[in-house]
Amino acid sequence: MVQMKDSLKRFTSDSLICCLNACLDSDECVTFFHNEKNKECVMHSKTFIYSQPNTAEEGWKFYVNRDVTGRCPYPYLYYRRLDFCYSTSINTINRINFNNIKSICSETGGRLAAVESHMKEQFLLKQLADRPHLRIAIDGLKTGANTWTLEDGSKLTYFNWGPGEPQGGNQLCLELYEDNKIFDCPCSFSSPGVFLCEK
């Protein structure tokens, strides 16, 4: 199996090592496919957690570009372009509860993923593109009028708000929701969703 659609780069590669080196040279490459028979390499910036490659052809093997420096211990992968570690296990929950979500991330030495820039927002959305639920819980707590902070106490300044957002009231947490925009939401409510941890 191989995924040609939405690849970063597709090229002829004499060997697996050449394909690996090309992936290592790219800040965006997270995974790649290599075919020894036809000498082809296909690089991607997603992990295929919720989807599978869409083309059945013989000879293809799939590889994940893992950090070996120890900066991102298992189950985390390193994304060089944004210089952060993210969990390869995306969690699906039946009921969003931010305290429970933060505890799950903490158990692996991480924290709930935050959206601090457009580039990071796009990266997270790409990783979660085929998710089973629309809602994505993200880090951010309302600590004052128009003031949002991250779990580490730093101020959140990037907001790609959905229409009419933020609504305020008891909606003190954040999620990526309709049209992949940021919405404020209650910190506990009975809707299913997904989340990703980072380190």
UniProtKB/TrEMBL annotation:
PROSITE patterns: C_TYPE_LECTIN_2 (PS50041). Transmembrane segments: none annotated. SMART domains: CLECT (SM00034). This is C-type lectin domain-containing protein. InterPro entries: C-type_lectin-like (IPR001304), C-type_lectin-like/link_sf (IPR016186), Ca-Dep_Lectins_ImmuneDev (IPR050801), CTDL_fold (IPR016187). Pfam families: Lectin_C. Residues 81-188 form the C-type lectin domain. SUPFAM superfamilies: C-type lectin-like. It comes from Mytilus coruscus (Sea mussel).
